[in-house]
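Why do we bother with holo predictions? Because pocket geometry can differ from the apo form. Keep that in mind while you read this record for calcium ion.
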Amino acid sequence: MKKTINRKKFIKTAVISGLGASLLTSCGATEKSDITAPNLITSKKYKWKMVTTWPPNFPVLGTGATMYADWVREMTGGRIDIKVYGGGTLVPALEVFDAVSSGAAEMGSGASYYWGGKEASLQFFTTVPFGMNAQQMNSWLYSGGGLELYEAQYARFNLVPFPGGNTGVQMAGWFNKEINTIEDFKGLKMRMPGIGGKVLEKAGGTAVLSAGSELYTNLERGVIDATEWIGPYHDYLMGFHEIAKYYYSPGWHEPGSNLEIIVNKRLLDTLEPDLKAILQTAAFRLNMWILSEFEAKNNEYLQKIITETDVEVRRLNPDILRKMRQYTRETIQELVDSDIKTKTLYESYSKFQKNINEWSQYSESAYYNMMNNG
Ligand code: CA
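The structure, written out:
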C-alpha cells in the first residue's frame, strides 16, 4: 500500500518536474521509486557560472565548455543551468582557480599547469615533458590512482577536479631557421611555458612567456624567434604558417595535456546525488569529445598546411630529443628534490608511466611500427 502511494506521489512530482515518459516507465517497471523520489521531489533549480581560461568561443576548448553546459542542462532537465564565461569576461583567465575555490564562480574550465605557480606538483595533472600521452594519462587518472591524488590535492583548495579533455600530442613549434642540432637552441628566444621552458633554458635558449593574443605579432616582429602553441588546427587558425618557415614535430614538451573541469567542493556537496553524478559523467563525455575533435581536426589541418602553404613540416632529430630528455630528467629531479608534494606525485606518475611504456612497446608502439613499415 505504502509503495503505491509513494509511486503515485512520485509520478505526480515527476510530471511536474517535466521529466520524460521513458523515466516513468522504467521506474514503474523496476519499483525503485522510493529511492529516486526524494531527489526529484526537491526539483531545486541551480544557476551556476563556469569561468574558463580559454578566450570566448575558443575552438574545441571554449566551445567544449559550452557543450558541457548544454549537456548538463539537457541531462538534468534544466535543474542545472550553467552560464559559460570566456577568459577575462568575468575573471581574468589565470584567476579561474581562485574564483572557483572561493565560490565566486561555482565551476571552471582550464588546465592544472596554469596553477603551477601555486604548487609545482599540480603540473603533473596536465602534462610534463616526455610524460604520458593522452591514452596513458587517462589510464593513470581513471584506473591507476592518479585521480585520487588529483582529488586529494585539490580538496585542500576546496575544489573537485574532473578530467575534461586532452589535446593529444602537440607540435614542437614554429621556427624561422632549421633546427638540426641541440646547438641551434642556443640563444633562441622561444615562447615555451612550464617545465618545457626550463628545459629549453638548459639547452641555452630563452623561454619567453607571451599571451596567445600577442604571439603572432611577437613572432612576426622578431620579439621571439620561435613559438609553440598547440597543434595544426589551432596553429593554422593563429596564422603562424604566414610568418614562419619550419614547423617541427613532436611536441616533446606537451605529449598529451589533460584539461580539467573544476567545481567548488562545498557547493558540489550540497547538490542532490543525481546532479553530482551528471556533472561528473558529462565531464567523461567532454574528455572523450575533446580528444576526438583534436585528433580529427589536427589531421585535417596538417594536410592543409602541407598542401596549401610553403611551410616545411619536419621532425626534430633523435639526438636533439635525447638531449632534451636528459635536460627534462634534470629539471624534474630538481623539482622533486625541492618539493615533497612533487616527490609523492612523481612517484605515482613515473611508476605508472614506466609500466605502461613497457606494455605500449608490445601494443601501441608495435602496432604503429608495423603500420608505418609495411
Ligand atoms: Ca602548447
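The radius of gyration is 23 Å.
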